[in-house]
Each structure stands twice: as structure tokens, then as C-alpha cells.
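Cross-posted from the bioinformatics board.
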Amino acid sequence: MRDRQRSRRRGPHPAPFRRLTNPYPFVEPLHAEQVERLHEASLRLLSEMGMRILSAEARRLFAAAGCIVEGDLVRIGSDVVDACVASAPAEFTLRSRNPDRDLHFGGRSVVFCSVGGPAFTADRAGGRRAGTRSELQQTIRLIHALPIIHQEGGGAFEALDLPAESRHLQLCLDLVRLTDRNWHATALGRERAADCIDLAAIALGTDRDGLASAPALMAIVNTNSPLTLDQPMADGLMELAGAGQVACITPFTLAGAMAPATLAGALALQNAEVLAGVCLTQLVRPGAPVMYGSFTSNVDMRSGSPAFGTPEYMKAAQAGGQLARRYGLPYRSSSTTSANSVDAQSAYESVLSLWGAVMGGANLVYHAAGWLEGGLTASREKIVTDAEVLQMLAEWLQPMTVDDDALGLDAIRDVGHGGHFFGSAHTLARYESAFYEPLVSDRRNFERWVQEGRDDTASRAAVVAEELLAAYEPPPLDPAVDDALDDFVRRRTAQYQAAGAQ
Amino acid sequence: MRDRQRSRRRGPHPAPFRRLTNPYPFVEPLHAEQVERLHEASLRLLSEMGMRILSAEARRLFAAAGCIVEGDLVRIGSDVVDACVASAPAEFTLRSRNPDRDLHFGGRSVVFCSVGGPAFTADRAGGRRAGTRSELQQTIRLIHALPIIHQEGGGAFEALDLPAESRHLQLCLDLVRLTDRNWHATALGRERAADCIDLAAIALGTDRDGLASAPALMAIVNTNSPLTLDQPMADGLMELAGAGQVACITPFTLAGAMAPATLAGALALQNAEVLAGVCLTQLVRPGAPVMYGSFTSNVDMRSGSPAFGTPEYMKAAQAGGQLARRYGLPYRSSSTTSANSVDAQSAYESVLSLWGAVMGGANLVYHAAGWLEGGLTASREKIVTDAEVLQMLAEWLQPMTVDDDALGLDAIRDVGHGGHFFGSAHTLARYESAFYEPLVSDRRNFERWVQEGRDDTASRAAVVAEELLAAYEPPPLDPAVDDALDDFVRRRTAQYQAAGAQ
């Protein structure tokens, strides 16, 4: 039986793509009055201190809505907040190049997205280093090979062999070519966001109107806490909202650094900044989809360094969900860790973050695969290890079956007292699909593990990544679409070069 | 500021002892009808197939209650089950040598207990090996040094330098001397269980009547699935129940091996066996405290090996909680992993198990610190790494504060737009205690981590264990009590030796 099973299939077998919903009650660490108190504190911050907004165009929109603008400061009253929150949709769907990969955000949906934004890439073979386009392509292929990763996070790291001002173009092109899953845009300035939108329209065979009526893009918009929205992010937000695409407003409110050294203070600040961002999207285009993003964590008490996957992080992720639901907005949280390698800490901090996010009602779990080193590095082995955990959670979220067949009372009778079920017909009929099949988890006994070299999870993950990449096949793409994308990227890259050369 | 913080305290600072309650809604994967269906399937197994019980005394008790006994088989009707479940208490408290360490089981309480039962011990320095009494003493000291471990699990591994039949005596003696926390007894036979009870009475300055009115001991009673209770465990159960101490009835229903290859089948079997054990405790002594234990996991599909910390394990832990609550019994689950070393897998499987147990309403999380290698090994570094996670969960379970002081709006005003909170009075006033302080989690930046030797979590845990053991101080013990314990152990050890020599 063991040999039969072992010879049955070789290589990793990632779980198939499936959309997830969380049927369980959310963990809510705040009482209803505490939610209101945070809401009111945020409104006071917005109306009394105001938000510093470094885009004149954005300030004009706020002024036109009746907000008090003095220099860079915009004081936002509760009437504006209420109206904007009311016009933002509670749920939305993002199209993918493959319609079977479209994603729903809101309600009880759960979407897992790969890491976005790190400066570095790392793997066992090459160590931690600045990344290249070709390495980033391999990472996109690996993400495509792991369908539990529902969405690509907008570039797992920077391709530093490409010019900074135009590398988003090559990234978008590679994303369309190498995966059929939904991907994130960049919100770093109006021009880059516009490029992402135009490329998405070409990829989906539509135009800006078509995209506005059925959106495809989401981008993370970070505020500069405390209470500042810089020009590039404000411009990116306005471009996205104007095109009916999704701004995911996410303050990085690190308690003890950019926010007070209390969760209540950090959450009040987070909430104020999210509301300011939500308002701007709705002033640009009422009804534009927008997401409530939470990224509140805390500094390390001894060193002042950022700390992730902490108990405070778990609570903030769950309290953030309560605030997002108070406003009827889809909710984004993240999987995070401070660890420098794919060791036990990287795993327990990531899973505790997931516990915070998933039980907190996150519709989007960003950075859910690959994040390492406080977000400075995207790790190949971490992508695989995280995918294992995400696959396990997806399996856990499936409903249980309790019927005569599953109960198997006849099988129990046949086996008898003290017998075993290895060879019973009931077992053999369901052996191949009865239980979750792991990617990297090891169930060998100790002796065999020693004999075979005492590998750890990270080294097994490196092998799995190689195997997945060796078996990778690109999803089909209409050659005419490919040509059109390529033309666009060439033309725009040349324009950026010309502008840079002036 | 950084230097000030760093110089402030040296060495690990474990979190203080505190009792935990879980205020959050439990995860309940079964619908109410599914719970009833499992209940009814269990009753059919008990009344139609019956339980094989290898103790004549136990069978006589069942027969006296009206059950049908044929050979070793005892058919238990629903009337007996109903009456016995009704007489078992919903909650109980266990006394500790230090009354400040008494433990409550039931309702929303959560108790973390160290690993019990492995054959081997392991640490970075000495590898995996058979353990000795002196090594087991060090492990007890380490557990005592980590107050998040509320309860000791009855020996983290076997002291193989002591004779098998009497080593429980030296273990009990060491437990009383080296920690003031509650500890587990052994249920392996009437004589051993009686020794544990007598030693507990001496340690607490009471007698068997005193212990019966205020219990101090719990022991794990494993059934031999499917549907068998062997003689030593039946005898141990009867001794414990007769003395008013707690039997924690825990079938090892491994789906695909000792149970059907479905969660429904494994849970029906688990539930039948727990109910049989609960009945026996109540037939011995109505009102005796007893615990519903769940240990349903699944085999690996490829190899037939046991697998732990799986999605099936999470679901079974949470469904098991629903069954326990249906009967109004305190609930035991566990933290588990199949990993062979303290790597990422060991962490994600353990935390996913905890997610199952804690969100499933477990009152006792057994094996919560130190379990490795499918339960064959107790690992020193895993004790420390697990304690870190348990401390984090304890912190997460604390309520949030949202008042003017915590909100810190004045501090936000003082810091201003784009400023930072490092040096603000609001931060300085709470810096030392604002956030959870880790035991082994690392927040150094990558460069410093590389410079300082690229350690991983397990190697840091080894250092923490050394430091905790170096600082260990035994809790005070009345010399008269110590003498009485020693006398008892000497006398009983000699009796076992004499019996063995016959």
C-alpha cells in the first residue's frame, strides 16, 4: 500500500485554484462603544488637525466639497466623511485575464495575494540580493504555479536592472504574459498608474470605459503617517479612482514610531488616514471602488525596530476589520514577519498574522506569500512555505460532510474492535483524495529523515520551487494582444527615456 | 533611546503566570444537526458494537448499571450514557502546590500544558536520544522557568536510566520539588495512579478525602481505537475516578489507520470511546471530574504515516469542542507537528494546531510546549519556541483599552503631521511595557543578523534555555513535606524492586 501510494505521483501537486469564503464568526476585540470612540477620535483628527495633502489638485477637490484648506492642510468635516463613505461600494469584483480567475472582494470573501514592494530577492542558492527582471519573471512563474495565490501583488521585488521610472511597464507586460491571474498596479504617480490601466485595458480587450464598468486593477496607496498623503500617492489614487479602479488605502501606523505607542492611538490615526483616502477617491469619482487597508504594528521595545506578527499586530488586524465593517468597506490585512530567514520565527509570525487577518474578516490578505525580513525581501522558499499554509487554510475553510457514507459505521463494524482501517474498502475508496496533500511538509520518520540528509522546510521548499518552475507552462495569450502590449510598452519606455534624457 | 533600552535588562524575561480565558466566539465547523448525527452514530456504535473493555472490574460496573456484557464486550445503551454525562461536572479546579497556580478547567478557560509521553529527548547540543532522570529534571526546571506553561504534562519524556515499573515515583518527587505548578499523573495501571495520588496528598498536606473534595491531579487515559479500552488504562481510570481525580479520556483516532479515512467517521468513533470512558468514571464515582479529550488527526496520503497540524486536525479540534460542549464537559485538545526539527514546518503545524484548539474552545491545550516528531521526542528548543507563541496568544487574549490616555490625541497633535513618536512624552511614559517583549523572536536588521552569525530561531532558543536554567531557583518546599515524599518514594521503589525480583 505504501509503495503503491508513493509511486502514484511524483513532484509537487499544488492545490487547484478556488475562491474562498470564511463562514466563521469574526474575532472582534473591540466593544461596539470602542469602535465608535475610535471613529470619533478619527473624525476629530480630520476636522481639527486635518490631513496634510501634497497635491494641489487633491486639495482643490476637498475645497470644492466644503473642506477647509490652509496651505497643505485639509480639514475634513464629518459631513464629507459620511457622504464619501456612503458612496463607496461595499463589494466589488476584479476581472482577470482568465475569467475563471476573477476575484470578489467584500462580505466573507478571502483573497490571498503575493508579497509586493520588497527591495530585495532571496533564495537558498543565491542568497539575498538586488533582483533583476529575469529573476522577477521566475518569481511570477512560481506564483502562477501556485494557484492558492489568488492575486499577484504588483511585483515581488524591484527589477534593478531596469530604469526606475519605466520598469512598471516591463513588469505589467511580464505579469500579463506569465500568469492569467489578477495583478496589482502601482499607485506611484499619475503617469505610472495610467500606464498600468492602459495595459490592463489592452490585456482584457477593452478600453477605459469598459474597465471602469468592470474593474481589473487594485493598487496599494500608502499614507505617510502621521496624517500626510504625499504627491505621488495622491496622484496615483486620483488616477485609479478616476478610472474606476481600486485604491487600497493603507497607512503604515507603526505604534511607537509613526503612531502613538498604544493600539488605540495607532488605530485612531490609521482610521483617520484611511477615511481621508476614501474621501479623495469618492470626490474624484463617487462610487469608485476603494478598500480599507490596515497595517498597524508596533516597534520592538528594546531596539525601536519594527516588529511584525506580534500579538499587537493580531489585535490591530482584527480591530481594523471591525472599523472597515463599520464603514461597509472591503478590508485588507497582511501576513508579516520580522524574521531574516525561513525559520521557525518566520512561520509562527506569519501564521499568527494570518490568524489575525483571516479571523479578523480580511477580504484581502496582502503579502500572503513570500514576505521576509520585515518586508525588505521577497524569498522564493518563503513563497512555497507560505503557499503550503494558505493551502491548508483553504482546506480548513471547506465545510464538513457528515452523512452515512462519511460516518462509515459499516466500515467500523467490518474492521472490528482493535482492528485497523488501512486496507478496508472504505479507506481504499477515498485514499487518494481523503486528506490534504502537502507541498513541503515532511512526514518521514526520524530515521529516514536522518538517512536522507536532515533537510529542513526551507531546503525542501527550494526543491519544490525548482520542480514547479521546471513544469511551468505559460497561460495562452492571443498573439495580437501580446503585440499590442509590446507596442505600448516600447513606445512608453522610449518616451520615459526621452524625458529622462532632457 | 536605543542604547538606553538595550542596556535596561539582560537575559530572557518570560511573561508572568496568568490564567487565561478566551472571550471570542468559537469556530464551529459542524451544524447543529451534524453534531446530533455524530452523537447518534456514537450511540449506535456503543449499543450495537459495544466497547471492548479488558478489565473485569470495569465490566462488572457496566453490568451492574444494566449494560449487556458478553465476554470482553460491553454494550452501552443511551440511558446509561445520558445518566453518566449528566452526573459529570461541567467545570472543575485543580489545586497546585502554590495556590496562586491553581487551574480552572471548563467554560472559557484556557490552560497550556507541556508535552507528555515522548520516548526521546532532544536538544541542539546533544541531539535526539533516550533521556535520563537528570535530563528530565532539567526539563522540569525549564518548564518552571516559563510561567506561560500553566501545567506540567506528566513527564516530557521517559527517564530510561530508571526502572520502568517505578520511575513514576522519582518523576512525581522531582515534579513536586522542582516546580510549584500543577502536574499530570499517570493512568498506566491502578498501582501507579495510586502512587501519584498518595504523593499529591503528601505534597498538598492533605489526605485522599481532602484530595477528593478539592482535586489536584489529571491523567490522560487513552483508548485503543477502535473501540477498545485496555486493562492498565481502565484500571488507572478507575483509580483516578475513585479518588475524585480527573481522567482526561482521549482516543487516538487517526483517520485512515485506527479510524475511518473520513473526519465524520473518526469523530463518531472518538465520541463513542470518550463517552464509554466518561461512563466508567461516573459508574465508579458519580460526579467525578472527567474531561473530553480529542486527538483526531489523519494519515499521510502517500505514506500512511501519521500527520499532525493538518487542516483535518484543525477541523477535528474544533468539531471536538462542539461535541464536548454538547455534553457539558471540559475539553482537551493539543498542539502537534510531524516535523523532525525546530524548523518552519514545526512552527506552522504547531500554530495551526493552536488555532484549531484555541478557537475550538479547548480548556486544556496539551503538548503545548515541546512536542516534536509526531510526539516521539520532547525538544528543549521547541519548549522555548512554543512558549514564545503561547505568550503571544496570552497577550492577544487580553482586552483592549480605548480611553483618552490610550488614544493620545494630544500626543498626535504635539508630534504633528509627518513627525515621529519615538521621543514623545506619551511614548516615553509607556515604552517599557507598551508591547509584548519576545523570548526568542529576532528583530535585528539583516546586516546585523549576518554580522552576528545568521542564527535561526532554534539556536536562539537553545541560548534562552541555557540562560533560563542558569537563573533557575527552586520554589520553596517545607522540609517535612520533602522528607515525607522522599520516604514514600524510597519505600514504594523498594516494594516495586522486591516485586520485580520475585
